[in-house]
Amino acid sequence: MPVRIKIFDTTLRDGEQTPGVNLNVHEKVEIARQLERLGVDVIEAGFAIASPGDFEAVNEVSKVIKDVKVASLARALEKDIDVAWEAVKNARMPRIHTFIATSDIHMKHKLRMTEEEVLERAIQMVRYAKKYCEDVEFSAEDASRTRMDFLYKVIEETIKAGATVINIPDTVGYATPGEFGELIRGIKNNVPNIDKVDISVHCHNDLGMAVANSLVAVENGATQVECTINGLGERAGNAALEEIIMGIDTRKDFYKAGHKIDTTQIYRSSRLVSTLTGITVQPNKAIVGANAFAHESGIHQHGVLAEKTTYEIMKPESIGLKQNRLVLGKLSGRHAFEEKLKEMGYNLTKEQITNAFQKFKELADRKKDVTDKDIEALVEEKVARIPEVFQLETYQISSGDKVVSTATVSVRRNGNVYTEAATGEGPIDAAFKAMERTVGFALDLEDYNLRAVTGGKDALGEVTVRVSKDGREFTGRGVSTDIIEASVRAYLSAINRVLSELGEDIIQR
Ligand code: KIV
Ligand code: ZN
Known about the structure:
Layout (H helix, E strand, L loop, with lengths): L2 E2 L1 E4 L15 H14 L3 E5 L5 H13 L4 E7 L2 H11 L5 E8 L2 H8 L3 H18 L3 E6 L6 H13 L4 E6 L6 H14 L7 E6 L6 H10 L4 E4 L13 H10 L1 H4 L1 E2 L7 H12 L20 H9 L19 E3 L5 H10 L6 H17 L3 E2 H10 L9 E10 L2 E11 L2 E9 L2 H13 L4 E9 L8 E9 L2 E9 L2 H20 L7
Parallel strand pairs: 1-10, 2-3, 2-9, 3-4, 4-5, 5-6, 6-7, 7-8, 8-9
Antiparallel strand pairs: 11-12, 13-14, 14-15, 16-17, 17-18
Helix pairs in contact: 1-2, 1-11, 2-3, 3-5, 5-6, 7-8, 8-9, 16-17
The protein binds 3-methyl-2-oxobutanoic acid (KIV) and zinc ion.
């Protein structure tokens, strides 16, 4: 009988700590629903005390998610635990996840507490959380750099205090697979009553070993793995859910472990998270990167044509990746479009379908063949639920190698149209400057990314921008067959995101 591994997804908590990621409540709920479809066991929906927005998100996710446990993070402090409980108490299966650091380095420099104080606090706070909630997870932060004897003691005592899950984080991504496997084996063999709880692991990717460390932990007795979609997270990120699951599945002969993830939802989950966070997936990323199933060299192509298993260890369909088929054309009607969306697994509101259909019609006029990937890009542009304070009316660009680039942009707000012009170092710079004038505030552009959604000269271009305002970062995304238009739309979506977070008072006109 294979060991059943529980998947604890922390995309909405640790993943959201990725620099530049700022999800609103609607987007978090959208992702939570997709995680439910994906079949994770636990959704860590946020750190409820961190901000009112975090609280609201945990609370909303708790109300809508039915088949998955919903957790909120809390430091080992009564006020954190009170707020975490308030946020998750409406969940059908709530969990409080409390943590305190146990390594010498963290106790001395961050907490300024002795080990006796840390141990006592951990015990008291697990007991405190337990008064509210049967399901309490305790994390010994920086466990991989904690003295073994102290770690065993903390685990033993927090189990006695009522913890149902003990999490062993490699907080700074320092452990090697050999060391981490030994750590988990040591805990399993030496801590009394450890078999009464789930051993969880939570690995960061600073040295690129988060997935390897998570999998070696599974080999050595971990029964819960904490991870994020696309490996999002602080610094170099967390262990990537899709890599762990496909590792376990593809090498079931080796890991002999099971899970309840529907792998055909992996690709959709990856796309949704990438779209809503604005963090694009690198093409050579394992499992979900654009090249993960592409065969470039002639020898490989020849092998795959003769027999797929020569170079393919996984089937693209197993992660829900369909052949990029030609689908609809200029003459396709709304009914056919809706049927196509259903077949692709989208479940959209009437308004979203209307928006997407209009964009599809515009695209079909410009582009001969509209494929699944085009439709995916159009639909995902409309998934983000940011109020459109400013809407694009028109733009005009003049550019060339011997002229100064000039842009004129008109946007609409509350029925009024604002038009401004600007010059710049190239058409995109000019367009962004003109837009800042029309909306009445400036932004710093931190990152600009352009990719072609499909091959071909008439391909849709997808632009993602990362901007900063008042020390905070925001992303925006736009698609069009015209890359200037995609850029303008991406910048405008970032502008609207800034306004939804910082308020309309920043508009100066
Ligand atoms: O990395 C870490 O140690 C954490 C804990 C709060 C679980 O995120
Ligand atoms: Zn973490």
